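Q: Focus on the shape:
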Amino acid sequence: MAERYTIVIGTVGGGLSRTADGGETWDRIRDPIPSESNIRALSVYPDNPHRILAGTDVGIFRSEDNAATWEKLNSPMEDRQIWSVTVDPADSDTIFAGTRPDAFRSRDGGETWDELVMGLTIPCPVGIPRTTNMIVDPRDSRTIWAGIEVDGVYKSLDGGDNWVHLPELGPDPFHGDIHGMAIQPGPTTSIYCTSPYGIATSTDEGESWDYHYFPKFNEKDNRSYCRGMAIKTDNPNVMFVGNGDAIPGITGAIQRTSDGGKTWEPTDLPVAPNSVVYWFGTHAAVPDVFAAGSLYGYVYLSTDGGDTWRKLKKEFGEIRSVAVMPN
């Protein structure tokens, strides 16, 4: 039976690979994306689920056919690490790319780009900060959120022209070492961030934050480290956080909540992760499909909304980005 989804995996040093048959066979992209390139960002277009962007260390690329073939976009980012890519859901010609440092914006589908000077703290505890997440607010596309590694959360109210550094997420600078971000609109909108300390939630537009800390894997661990996160598109009470003992770590977990973050528990994985669980992919067209990658190359797949998981046979080097698209 043909699968209903494609999984796309971006790596550091191993380029881009895709599978359209549930992981049975894989295609490695070799042109024009270099087969040994670094790919830290993937983003599926909100208005076309078969269209996807890839942010690399040698520029930004686009596919129109579920990541099978690619074209390179003209951009000023060929010498800048790209850590995040997002497309405005209200206007897919508007694209944001988070780089190291700062970010770029295109308003004409990637033909031309403006560099966005965000006012980041340079140097930060890891040297040059990385813009690991950019989100166009679904309530108002003029509002842009950016998560920075390691410089907290920045917000723009004018489409990215001007930025405000929001209050610190906690007492330690690494409370603001932002790895994953998501927004859940509702009667009370929640903004979520993950960091080495756990998952932080704000219900007042980023002015204050409440942290949830996951249990340590070992007593000697400094903390229970967190990376990417995902919200189930048809049930926002279900969320997942990639977790591990450290970065890269030697073991990890997929933490799950079914009550909007009130309680969490690790999912049952058939093979223990070999490192922190780094990133997730899912899509509204196939809302029960989740793919998750450990930093050191394991790929886990759920087709029942995260109730059960299997590890795919194929293993990679370092996984940095994951996407799911409907076939």
Observations:
- The longest strand covers residues 48-56.
- The CA atoms of residues 52 and 67 lie 7 Å apart.
